[in-house]
Amino acid sequence: MNTSIPSSDRLDRRTALKWMATAAASAALLPRSRAQPAPEPGVSVVTAPMGDGYGTDPDLLRDYAPGDLWPLTFNDHQRRTAAVLCGLIIPADNRSPSAADLKVHDFIDEWISSPYPAQAGDRALILQGLEQLDGLAQKRYGSPFADLRINAQATLCDKLAKMEEMDAATESALSASDREFRQLQRAFRRFRDLTAGGFFTTPEGLKDIGYLGNVPLAAFPAPPADLLKRLGLPVE
Amino acid sequence: MPVISASQIKPEYDVIVVGSGAAGGQSAYTLTMEGVKVLMLEAGRSYEPVTETPMFKVGSSAPLRGASTTDKPFGFYDSTVDGGWTVPGEPYVRASAGRENQFKWWRPRMMGGRTNHWGRLSFRNGPYDFKPRSRDGLGFDWPIDYDDLAPYYDRVEQLIGVYGNNDGMENTPDSPPGVLLPPPAPRVGERLVQQRAQKIGVPIVAAHRAVLTQRQDAENIPAKLHPNNPKAQRILRESMQSRAACFWATPCGRGCSIKATYQSTTVHLPPALATGNLDIVPNAMAREVTTDSNGKATGVIFIDKTTGDEVQARGRAVVLAAGAAETVRIMLNSRSVVFPDGIANSTGLVGKYLMDTVGAKLGGQIPLLENLPPLNEDGAGGAHVYAPWWLYQQQLAGKLNFARGYHIEFNTARGQPKLDVGAGLEPLNGGGTWGRKFKDDVRRYHGSFISFSGRGEMIPNEGTFCELDPVVKDKWGIPVLRFHWQWSDHELNQVVHMQQTFKQLIEACGGKVWGEQPAAHGRDAIHPGGDIIHEVGGAIMGSTRRKSVVDAWSRTWDVPNLYLTDGAPFVSNADKNPTLSLMALAWRASDHLIGELSRGNI
Fold first, then answer.
1. What value of ipTM does the predicted structure carry?
2. Among candidates B309, B420, B430 on the partner chain, residue whose Cβ is nearest the Cβ of A4
3. Pairwise CA distance, residues B431 & A39, whole Å
4. Sign of the torsion formed by the C-alpha atoms of B461, B464, B469 and B475
């Protein structure tokens, strides 16, 4: 027998409002209440973040492109600079096209524009990095980075790519301009990570890296005997 | 189609099953195949792996290249929908801010529960695992032993299909001949670890996973599982014939549209539905078990999430299989005159002795594995080999500073590149490169990394439990759980040992520890409670009603028509992943319930 009672009549609104308020403060302490015993220090409510992303039940079968789900960030100049960087970091060779050819810069734009907290730090890092990069290019060569000759771009990439290991104390003792340069190196490193990840997860990138999987096989074979021998492993 | 809406439920069922994952699926399967009329309640939406699984999608088809987000914590293509570490509108509470006192609660909230995305590792508990207290004086003994459960392990393995070998390892039981499917050939990196691990005495043997490496024997298994039941045999035969063998592609965590892996939604629920004895209501959030004035269970009140209405379902018996902590929550919320502290909680033990699996990891980079020729290493979509715990005797002799064991899982990661494929190479390539050199570096190092994970036994303790929070409720007004978590030195010392072993293994392969170094203290290495998603305990099984919540048949002492078939009755949590044991226990409990129903005791 069904006994149907509208749930709104049964909802304890005071309590509901309480944890919603707590959610807004992101796992803050429960608010004190006269009606309830005050919670011990350290007690926290774990709630779902308020998201503007694709939600908890997105369509997994369709193909997505940057900009489909949330607005992108780069203006024309930023996008052009990002594309130039992608092309420098992963250029075309005889095995595959460049990261710029595969529009990996659009993926990086999608990444830094994402509504999710994991990408939030990269947004500021990369947008500031693009600005600093132009600043550096202007200072040295009198033009924005994207307009430089390839030799000048390469010289700057050489300087940016190799980041010295440094402990926190040494770093904080650096001059303001050195610290800013280090920040730019950090942005370059992150941009490089994203370029590689963005590139090698495309069909062209998978092929380039020698990934032969993702195809149905009738049987899973043992590794080839010559490879096992080369590695000093027993051959069955 | 018997997936129905709340308004379509019948006035009365034989059994109400709460939950549709490994436990609910197995319970409903066993019951309905024997003619019992079952209503299953699932808190999440209906889910159809055959049509919904994103089988061959590559990273660039997904937003953010498939990276994990708060909406999809295991990545975009993980099969979990609507569930995760947080669920909108369903908060929970942590009792302490302490770093070592954290519990993370994974809730799947979908048809089939965690079985859609799980790792498919399927290990039997061994004889020691049922009598841990007798062995080392800690924790509790189970009221049953290995021989009681062995026939049910045999049945579950044959039903779901498990690959592995019989290696005769200590406390790592073999299966009878013909039960296991052949394991897949080890990958290159797996073979390297296997060879080098011998030097330090770590045995590497075939993993056991619920993946069909060949078609099931649909002609003979049904008669073994359902003797004298032609209808059940026919239904199971057809179900087995609908499952393809693994085609060695696509990650298992996405689910499997060809039904080569075990998922409740492809293996348990379709045959149960085919009997005509099962109705399933999705979007049904169970709130409480109702009782009569004698304290006998009469059914379940649930919230129909599609309308917000409260609905009473009635049955002669109730099976809770909602996931250990959710089952505890339902029990504590089932308060009545007979059970003022929650149903079947006369001892006050409901919520006590919650456990997870102990976890720690360490990564290594192996020069020998650089620049290997292209090779398809997708394999069975998970581990082909692993290391079972190998130091039982040293531990018994008191030579280790922790009482229980762990097994080792490892990933040689020559799979489909992910977003991190070129990240963090600076220590290998002289501080960082760009251009052609960088492109070559990524190619060179991809596949040269190995990550080791330890999965160890946690001993139940008084400081790890859950209770109802006095204040916080979910969006339907149902009180939520507050979790207390504590590790003992056994777990903290165990993870230190894990990381030291991993370091030895990495070095034995000629490599170096990559990234985080082994921790000096376990608190810096151990995963938070709940992180391994093996939450069990909370309503432990025992031989006396004073000291336990359920009897040896998973039936609550206080309420003879209330059974718990998920991880809640676990008395200990051996390093062996709990799913296979939980299904064996669910089958055994359901057999007992069928007997009680047919004898008219319920």
1. 0.94
2. B309
3. 50
4. negative
